């Protein structure tokens, strides 16, 4: 095991890593910008080095500062957390050149999965289902019909030169394709100067299901089950839970096997997550792989009883993985990301926290770097706390989450607590009936889908 | 019972070492000193002050007796914080993380010493990081009044290296 680990991160995840190190009797070094001098991770680390001014580019992303800090403190390993340099293959390589151990996968794996086209190809080669479609622009509507027949309707016609949600048309069936194709091409010429169009299977109401992977340096790769992260706003996750209400044991086995196959094809070591889209017909497709520990890892920890960050340290230190593969889960866990932002406008709300009283009691875990009188700096992300509720079943987890949200007192800044209370009360959520379009509908107050919210 | 001199020494100990407090109990008395240091902003020119509460009380009396407790509040000046500028001084701070060296090489003379006059752009020291020797230049014309780190001491970003009195 390492003697001293430098945490190249900040906020709640830096604190999380310090906690794992403390339990393993590993010394910790915190690095911080001047804006984070009073941060909790700085307070609790054994040593702290200021590495730069507030902007991330000059501090948390400043490779030479971080390495210099590792040098002067004599750290022997670096944990990158998530975000910042966590998926920088270049940083991992520089560390290795400086004889510092990188707590994560190999630079080659990071590169492979970071290139979305390459990742997709690796998945396809490994026999993992990928979203079908034509990668090249379609020559004409006839080719479109042929590919669409293979791919299966509904499909999405996309302008090859398009983007930002423009130049996309959903086509429900073969009859609509001919006219839609012509319109899509015309629009593409007008908007982008290029009429090329390609197509992709359109998933109507997908769920976002991700699988936790852990691998040692001896070739053993396991999965620890799924997290359902369908509740997102603009691709930012808000609520995650495990197990997913949508997975049957068979589906779990198939997706888990696919995740392991992909990790093996990538020569993966340490912790990672394979993300899938699950269609309403039970078919799943590889989306991408995250080669790092994730924000929502506590959800898996609660239902498996494992400590993923400690596992990361063990894997990086060359220990063998003794945990059996598979989802040997107990109970149900839900996580709500409490952000320092306006719960309706979603604008960030930095500043001084005047009152801070997190909930406790049975089945409640709070991962946070916040405290009373802490001043949230405006330079970084708005994640303030992760509130995790664990119960014997989903209903109990929801009841505990509602209770905990009601007992969570944060004053001085606006937070997303009220938004989470709305989600927990929503009948669709409570029925486990969500997709990635859930937040959109909730925020629009979509009348066709709104059921009477259940009393808390 | 402690003498005034002894209590004064205890207060200085609390301040110097930034202790949270000291409690001493002997036959007949108990002395407790609470150290509370105001947070110092190292870029300010104010030295750290410590407000300490000194509680001197007789030890728990024998059964039946009651003894009045005296409480003294004492404000003490903590020793001047090492890396804080005095009036009129300008602090030159490290722009990088690394190891501070006073000389260009181990056997050479230091670039500057206290009392030297320096010009803007003049090299004052080296901060070494990842085997790269970074020359740190003065940003003012003036006189070196203090050198904060020792030779070969690790320094962090923003750490004061020199106190310069500008011309």
Q: Could you please describe the fold and organization of this structure?
A:
Chain A has three domains: 4-103, Rossmann fold, CATH 3.40.50; 141-201, ATP-grasp fold, A domain (Dna Ligase, domain 1, 2-Layer Sandwich); 207-444, 2-Layer Sandwich (D-amino Acid Aminotransferase, Chain A, domain 1), CATH 3.30.470.20. Chain A is globular, with a radius of gyration of 23 Å. In chain A, the strands form five sheets. Chain A has an eight-stranded antiparallel β-sheet with strand order 13-12-9-10-11-14-19-17, with helices on both faces. Chain A has 15 helices and 20 strands. Chain A has helices spanning 11-23, 40-44, 63-73, 89-97, 107-114, 116-125, 141-151, 174-192, 249-265, 297-304, 308-316, 394-407, 417-425, 427-430, 438-444; strands spanning 4-7, 27-33, 47-52, 77-79, 101-102, 155-163, 166-171, 197-201, 207-215, 221-233, 236-242, 270-278, 284-290, 332-339, 351-352, 355-357, 364-368, 375-376, 383-391, 409-411. By secondary structure, chain A is an alpha+beta fold. Chain A is 34% helix and 26% strand. The model of chain A is unreliable at 447-456 (pLDDT under 50). The termini of chain A are far apart. Chain B has 167 residues and is mainly β. Chain B folds into two domains: 4-77, S-adenosyl-L-methionine-dependent methyltransferases; 90-166, Beta Barrel (OB fold (Dihydrolipoamide Acetyltransferase, E2P)). Chain B contains one helix and twelve strands. In chain B, the strands form three sheets. Chain B has a four-stranded antiparallel β-sheet, covered by helices on one side. In chain B, strands 5-12-10-7 form a four-stranded antiparallel β-sheet, with no helix packed on it. In chain B, strands 9-8-6-11 form a four-stranded antiparallel β-sheet, with no helix packed on it. The termini of chain B are far apart. The model of chain B is unreliable at 37-53 and 61-81 (pLDDT under 50). Classes of the chains: A alpha+beta (456), B mainly beta (167).
């Amino acid at each position: 095991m390492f003697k001293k680990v430098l945490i190249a991160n900040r906020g709640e995840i830096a604190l999380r890593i310090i906690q794992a190190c403390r339990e393993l009797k590993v010394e910790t070094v915190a690095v911080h910008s001047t804006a984070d001098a009073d941060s909790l991770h700085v307070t609790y680390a054994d040593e702290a080095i200021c590495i730069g001014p507030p902007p991330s580019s000059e501090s948390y992303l400043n490779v030479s500062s971080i390495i210099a800090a590792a040098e002067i403190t004599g750290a022997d390993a670096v944990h990158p957390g998530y975000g910042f340099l966590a998926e920088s293959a270049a940083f991992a390589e520089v560390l290795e050149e400086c004889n510092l151990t990188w707590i994560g996968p190999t630079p080659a794996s990071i590169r492979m999965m970071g290139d979305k086209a390459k990742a997709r190809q690796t998945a396809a080669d490994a026999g993992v289902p990928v979203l079908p479609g034509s990668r090249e622009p379609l020559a004409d509507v006839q080719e479109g019909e042929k590919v669409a027949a293979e791919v299966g309707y509904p499909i999405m016609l996309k302008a090859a030169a398009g983007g930002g949600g423009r130049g996309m048309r959903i086509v429900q069936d073969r009859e609509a394709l001919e006219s839609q194709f012509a319109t899509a091409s015309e629009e593409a010429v007008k908007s982008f100067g290029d009429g090329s169009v390609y197509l992709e299977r359109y998933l109507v109401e997908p769920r976002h299901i991700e699988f936790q992977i852990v691998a040692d340096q001896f070739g053993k790769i396991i999965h620890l089950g799924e997290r359902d992260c369908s509740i997102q706003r603009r691709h930012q996750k808000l609520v995650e839970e495990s197990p997913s209400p949508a997975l049957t044991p068979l589906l779990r086995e198939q997706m888990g096997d696919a995740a392991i196959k992909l990790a093996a094809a990538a020569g993966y070591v340490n912790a990672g997550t394979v993300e899938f889209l699950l269609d309403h017909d039970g078919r799943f497709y590889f989306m991408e792989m995250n080669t790092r520990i994730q924000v929502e890892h506590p959800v898996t920890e609660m239902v498996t009883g494992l400590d993923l960050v400690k596992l990361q340290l063990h894997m990086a230190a060359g220990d063998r993985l003794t945990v059996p593969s598979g989802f040997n889960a107990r109970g149900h866990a839900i996580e709500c990301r409490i952000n320092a932002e306006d719960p309706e406008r979603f604008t960030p709300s930095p500043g001084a926290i005047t009152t801070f009283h997190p909930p406790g009691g049975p089945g409640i875990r709070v991962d946070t770097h916040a405290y009373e009188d802490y001043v949230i700096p405006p330079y970084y992300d708005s994640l303030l706390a992760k509130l995790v509720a664990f119960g014997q079943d989903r209903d109990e987890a929801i009841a505990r989450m509602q209770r905990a949200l009601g007992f969570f007192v944060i004053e001085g800044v606006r937070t997303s607590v009220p938004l989470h209370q709305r989600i927990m009360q929503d009948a669709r959520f409570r029925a486990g009936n969500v997709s990635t379009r859930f937040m959109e509908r909730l925020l629009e107050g979509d009348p066709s889908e709104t059921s009477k919210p259940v009393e808390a | 019972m402690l003498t005034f001199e002894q209590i004064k020494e205890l207060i200085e100990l609390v301040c110097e070492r930034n202790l949270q407090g000291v409690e001493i109990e002997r036959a007949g008395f108990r002395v407790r000193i609470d150290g509370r240091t105001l947070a110092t902003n190292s870029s300010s020119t104010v030295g750290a002050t410590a407000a300490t509460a000194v509680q001197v009380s007789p030890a728990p009396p024998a059964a039946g007796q009651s003894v009045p407790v005296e409480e003294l509040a004492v404000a003490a000046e903590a020793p001047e914080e090492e890396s804080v500028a005095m009036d009129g001084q300008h602090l030159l701070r490290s722009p990088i993380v690394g190891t501070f060296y006073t000389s260009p090489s181990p056997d050479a003379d230091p670039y500057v010493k206290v009392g030297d006059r320096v010009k803007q752009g003049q090299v004052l020291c080296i901060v070494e990081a990842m085997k790269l020797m970074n020359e740190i230049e003065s940003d003012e014309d003036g006189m070196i009044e203090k050198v904060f780190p020792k030779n070969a001491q690790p320094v962090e970003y923003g750490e004061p290296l020199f106190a310069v009195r500008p011309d």
